[in-house]
Design goal:
Order of helices and strands: HHHEHHHHHHHHEHHHEHHHEHEEEE
Largest sheet: 4 strands, mixed
Number of domains: 2
Strand content: 5-15%
Radius of gyration: 24 Å
Structural class: alpha+beta
Strand order of the largest sheet: 4-6-8-7
Number of helices: 18
Oligomer: single chain
Helix content: 40-55%
Shape: globular
């Protein structure tokens, strides 16, 4: 007879698959991902895929940088997919890949552990996946998180077990993809992998073998930084700028996922209560644990190291921002790993499953609401010509359902969907040395003046329906809820 009894391990694997499905629903059902910087990243990938398309003017406006370096994994994958499928679908496939890699890590960790009960705390990684990093739209950094943890898992296998061809090959490809994803995560990997190697008891020969991968990564990173990075910018006043967030701001940012992504406004008390239930379940399990359920000191050390980085590193470091707060998602993931050694009773498992389902449904509702806010722009796009110059004016770019202080720029890149959906033109992009496209030096772009009269269109976003706006050379064309469109018939297309 077939054994249909649902063991703890089978229920754990089933739960992982269910939460993966709920996460994919969050990504795929809303039209637009609820990610602040996502439109810019998607546009740059679209330019790469359609660079020589005569229907658009992008080869007249942009030069393409080399793509084989850190911070380019999104552009490489999405631009390649966009040759075969629509760009919006290609972008969602990449986001889905980030979630699926998280699933692979959870299942891999369950297989790696030697205990006879599943790591139920790792189910927390699914709501944690949709953290502040996701909402800010750091696409390359987002995928680097599961890549980092898969690489650290392989590093633990390298340290604790005899390495073989499969382990070495997997390690190599994970390290290569991590190198292409984000430079910040590369540095984090170097620190954490060396911490693991130096913390584990092993022979001198095995210690040398285990530190070879991070040492090679250090050498490659230094070579990339020296030979492809313009280091002269570091000697300027902006390049030497260092700044920290106020303590209250750092604390507020850290607790955002636990209060519905809203600290300074209206806290989502349902989300808060659900997280309190989660904390209570694990607290009771910790108090009742037996001697075999001890915290792994190495995992606790890694959590404390990342948390120390979060509270001590600067927010600004030269041209780079969000330097310390990028550590927040690492803290959440390591906290779940620390708790993975705790065995939950059957009743607590079902309560945890129910609570996490509720959190995922709240996440879906929030994403649907934020997508609807972006969709308000669509009626205006249907009345705009492609390859045109567009001046975006944001009097209010805050989201309706999230913190208006931490996410005050949330909708500030929505106008880039004109360049993606209608096509052509050159939106204002955040420029740095590791972006895949740069403006040509001889490009005569009216947007550089930042004066509306030089643009063919003005897209204005305001949450005040009574406000009246007039532009010297533009006539009002139409409006759609918070958006208003103005057109200048005398400006040529870009």
């Amino acid at each position: 007879m077939i054994n249909l009894r649902l063991t703890d391990n089978k229920f754990f694997i089933l739960s992982v698959l269910i939460f993966t499905g709920l996460g994919l629903a969050v990504i795929w059902i809303p039209r637009f991902p609820a990610m602040q910087d996502y439109p810019q990243h998607l546009f740059m990938a679209y330019v790469l895929s359609e660079y020589n398309n005569p229907a658009f003017n992008w080869n007249q406006l942009y030069d393409v940088n080399g793509l084989w370096g850190p911070n380019n994994l999104f552009y490489l994958i999405v631009s390649a997919l966009a040759v075969l499928i629509p760009i919006e679908i290609a972008g969602k496939i990449f986001i889905s890949l980030s979630l699926i890699l998280t699933t692979v890590f959870v299942l891999g960790w369950n297989h790696f552990r030697s205990t006879d009960y599943p790591p139920w705390s790792l189910l927390l990684l699914f709501p944690f996946f949709f953290s502040q990093i996701y909402y800010l739209g750091f696409t390359n950094y987002l995928i680097s998180i599961p890549l980092l943890f898969l690489l650290l898992l392989n590093h633990l296998i390298l340290v604790e077990e005899k390495p073989n061809f499969i382990t070495g090959t997997t390690y190599f490809f994970l390290a290569a993809f991590l190198f292409l994803s984000h430079p910040y995560t590369i540095l984090v990997y170097i620190v954490l992998s060396l911490t693991i190697s130096l913390s584990c008891r092993q022979t001198r020969h095995k210690l040398i073998i285990s530190i070879i991968p991070p040492v090679i990564t250090i050498a490659l990173f230094i070579a990339w930084f020296i030979f492809t990075f313009d280091n002269s910018a570091l000697l300027t006043a902006d390049g030497l700028r260092i700044g920290w967030w106020p303590g209250i701001g750092t604390v507020g940012y850290f607790i955002l996922p636990f209060v519905g992504m809203n600290v300074t406004g209206h806290i989502d008390y349902l989300t808060l209560v659900l997280w309190i239930v989660c904390v209570s379940l694990f607290t009771l399990a910790i108090l009742r644990r037996n001697r075999r359920e001890e915290f792994n000191l190495l995992y606790l050390r890694l959590f404390l190291l990342t948390f120390l980085g979060y509270v001590s590193l600067p927010f600004w470091l030269g041209d780079f921002s969000y330097f310390n707060v990028r550590m927040s998602i690492l803290c959440y993931f390591f906290l779940a790993i620390v708790l993975s050694g705790i065995k939950l009773p059957r009743f607590s498992i079902f309560v945890l499953f129910f609570v996490l389902c509720c959190l995922m449904l709240i996440t879906f509702k929030n994403h649907q609401s934020l997508s609807c806010e972006t969709e308000e722009l669509l009626p205006l796009l249907s009345h705009m010509q492609k390859n045109s110059s567009v001046c975006p004016i944001y009097l209010d770019a805050t989201p309706g359902s999230m913190d208006k202080v931490y996410f005050y720029q949330f909708h500030e890149h929505d106008h880039v969907y004109y360049n993606i959906i209608v096509g052509g033109g050159a939106p204002k992009l955040y420029v740095d040395q590791i972006k895949p496209i740069v403006l040509k030096h001889n490009s005569e772009l009216p947007r550089l003046s930042l004066k509306p009269e030089f643009y063919q269109y003005v897209l204005l976003r305001t949450n005040d329906p009574r406000a009246k706006f007039h532009f010297k050379k533009h006539h009002f064309k139409m409006e759609s809820k918070s958006w208003r469109l103005y057109e200048n018939d005398n400006v040529r297309k870009e």
